[in-house]
Write a structure and sequence with these properties.
Elements: E1 6-15, E2 18-28, E3 33-37, H1 44-51, E4 59-64, E5 67-68, E6 71-74, E7 77-80, H2 83-90, E8 93-96, H3 108-119, H4 124-137, H5 153-166, E9 171-175, H6 183-199, E10 203-207, H7 211-217, E11 220-225, E12 228-233, H8 235-240, H9 245-257
Parallel strand pairs: 3-10, 3-11, 8-9, 9-10
Antiparallel strand pairs: 1-2, 1-4, 4-5, 6-7, 11-12
Length: 258
């Protein structure tokens, strides 16, 4: 076994009195595809937001690629990470959000090239070449000159995936990327993610309510409730023969709704 690329070690996250993540410990292996499932408010999205350093830790440690995320070594002590450390760590991770977050006043091509040019000092010609390859991969090359307002939700989400990939992250996070889409547009986004899962060795964490997709996509499924992992295992096991009553009840409800 390689060293884990992500380690959560007794992670606690509170918002005021509310404990959202409760002493959470789990590892992710390099290249592993993980689906996080569970009821709303169970802490799944908070894990992704912590990995992106959009939230701060209340307790515990997160280690990414062998390095502390929120702490750094100073002399022999661990101290809170400074902005330079956070910035460097963030470069390893890309995230696709539920609501696309494209820049409305920039073309599709500019949306994909902007971050590599600004943060990685990639030359425009190189950034555009890479952007067009990615847009081609997600089926959006012919829309390179379009503005976000001219795109459907599914098209915007595919551009958002290309934009996250442009920074060549080692880890990709997907937060409910189909939940804001019309049902007929969901499949086009899931197809792009299937392609990514099968053709790249990127580590991927997916928060989703699409159980059939989670079953196809994931090497391992983690079922969360109230900030803890209730049950985890291969998709075949979790979806066909869950051991925990809480998992069984959740899956019955979700699968009945589809």
């Amino acid at each position: 076994m390689a060293d884990p690329i992500i380690q959560l070690d007794h992670v606690v996250k509170r918002f005021g009195e509310l404990v959202v993540l409760d002493n959470l410990t789990f590892d992710v292996q390099p290249g592993e595809k993980i689906a996080l499932i569970g009821p709303s408010g169970s802490g799944k999205t908070t894990i992704l937001r912590l990995l992106m350093t959009l939230e701060t830790l209340s307790g515990g440690h997160i280690i990414v690629d062998g390095e502390q995320l929120f702490h750094m070594k100073k002399r022999d002590a661990l101290v809170p990470a400074d902005e330079a450390h956070l910035h460097r760590m963030r470069a390893k991770i890309g995230m696709v959000f539920q609501h696309f977050n494209l820049f409305p006043h920039k073309s599709v091509l500019d949306n994909v090239t902007l971050a590599p040019m600004l943060t990685q000092k990639v030359k425009r010609a190189d950034a555009e070449k890479r952007a067009m390859e990615l847009l081609d991969m997600v089926g959006m090359a012919e829309k390179a000159k379009a503005m976000p307002a001219q795109l459907s939700g599914g098209q915007k989400q595919r551009v958002a995936i290309a934009r996250a990939l442009a920074l060549q992250p080692e880890i990709m996070l997907f937060d409910e990327v189909t939940s804001a889409l019309d049902p007929e547009l969901v499949e086009e986004v899931l197809n792009v993610m299937r392609l990514l899962a099968s053709e790249t060795d990127m580590t991927m964490l997916l928060v989703t309510h699409e159980m059939n997709f989670a079953r196809d996509f994931a090497d391992r499924v983690l079922f969360f409730d109230r900030g803890r992992i209730v049950e985890q295992g291969p998709p075949g096991e979790i979806f066909t023969n869950p051991r925990e009553e809480r998992t069984q009840g959740f899956l019955r409800k979700v699968l009945a709704a589809h």
